[in-house]
Amino acid sequence: MNNEYIAQQLKEISESIFEHGSPWSTAQFLSQLMQENTEIIYQCKDGEMIGYILCQRVLDEAELLLIGVLPNYKHQGIATSLLKDMCQRLQQRNVTHLFLEVRLKNKEAIAFYDKHHFKELGIRKNYYKNPSDDAKMMQLEI
Ligand SMILES: CC(C)(COP(=O)(O)OP(=O)(O)OC[C@H]1O[C@@H](n2cnc3c(N)ncnc32)[C@H](O)[C@@H]1OP(=O)(O)O)[C@@H](O)C(=O)NCCC(=O)NCCS
User: Fold this and answer.
1) 111 in ligand 1 pocket by Cβ < 6 Å?
2) Which residues form the signal peptide (predicted)?
């Protein structure tokens, strides 16, 4: 799969994965994929992408930009396995801290991050628009 095709697939499945539709356009996914410090792992079934995790490294830190699994494949441990594989890869690249921000109303994702021992760093008020929401900042030592 080339980057253009992967970007298209990411956009397409993200429309179904995220409550408010894909947070990124195909062009945004493509531009992220072209960056040398981007790490992506995706899961396929019968040749179709069903979930992914996307991170960006900066020295010994990384940001978890997006993680998601198609609704029909949730609660099967797919995101857990994507996160574990990503942490392994980041460790190999000498990353020690993984950061993220998540909508405070996204209880499902917060439960997932809690389960995987991410710690809260703080709340940023009105960080998100359309719809507006606060952001919970979290960190995992890997
Ligand atoms: C968050 C998300 C990635 C989890 O994916 P998943 O493959 O279903 O997660 P897993 O099956 O690996 O779940 C692992 C654990 O996370 C927790 N968890 C996951 N979904 C949960 C939910 N809806 N409610 C409560 N806990 C949940 C549970 O502790 C679960 O362990 P268990 O199955 O033993 O109870 C998925 O719900 C998703 O794609 N959400 C929409 C996209 C999104 O909001 N991404 C985060 C912001 S970028």
Assistant:
1) yes
2) none
> How large is the C-alpha radius of gyration of the chain?
15
**For the chain, how many structural domains are there in total?**
1
Q: Which amino acid is at 19?
A: E
The total of other beta-carbon atoms located within 10 Å of residue 29's CB is 25
Q: 35 C-alpha vs ligand 1 centroid, how far in Å? A: 28
Q: Is the CB of 109 under 6 A from ligand 1?
A: yes
Domain residue limits at 42: 3-141
pLDDT of the chain along its 142 residues, tens only?
A: 799 999 999 999 999 999 989 999 999 999 999 999 999 999 999 999 999 999 999 999 999 999 999 999 999 999 999 999 999 999 999 999 999 999 999 999 999 999 999 999 999 999 998 889 999 999 999 9
Q: Is any atom of ligand 1 closer than 6 Å to the C-beta of 75?
A: yes
CATH code for position 120: 3.40.630.30
Total count of residues recorded for the chain = 142
